[in-house]
Amino acid sequence: MASIDFKFPGMSRETIERKAEHLLRQYQPSVLSAEEPFFIEQFVDLHLEDLTGVQPDYRNLPAGIYGLTDQNEMVIDLSLVEDPTARQFLHSTTGHELGHAILHVPVLRNYGRQQVFAQKKEGQGEVNLYRRRDLKAYEDPEWQAWRFAAAVLMPRAAITALCRRGYNLYDLAQHFQVNLIFVERRLRQLGLVAG
């Protein structure tokens, strides 16, 4: 069986920002004006399957794996859902997997691949993934999914408005219901400083 080299199309930061903003305008526009956080769990449960054809599920995953997405389902580890102290981590993980569902599942379907994220040893199977170290950031599906998660959970317009109002890191983390490190990275991405 002949193997093919598979690489997801590159995507600019701006393209990812626009895709996240489009989703928010369509489903919860109040997030863009910083009125409230994105209710990501509700969105996934109510709209993910209709929007992408990907069915959400919550079940125990192997240790160290908190989410996975293929062209049929998005799975979030049940331990995150059941642990009230892991809410912020749950939101960022769900945002990351939502990024895969929106940005990458259409590509997988176009190529007729069930699960390309599972790398195999060279010579086994028909799909050879490029290794992350060989990709530019904008070509890396993991970078793309994290960028999407940040943009959908902390939209540029909302985080900019809150910074202008003097919100500090803790205020921003509480407003967007994400952890501090996620806020710090987002601020750096956008060239912003919290109050």
UniProtKB/TrEMBL annotation:
<protein>
    <recommendedName>
        <fullName>IrrE N-terminal-like domain-containing protein</fullName>
    </recommendedName>
</protein>
<feature type="domain" description="IrrE N-terminal-like">
    <location>
        <begin position="93"/>
        <end position="187"/>
    </location>
</feature>
<dbReference type="InterPro" id="IPR010359">
    <property type="entry name" value="IrrE_HExxH"/>
</dbReference>
<dbReference type="Pfam" id="PF06114">
    <property type="entry name" value="Peptidase_M78"/>
</dbReference>
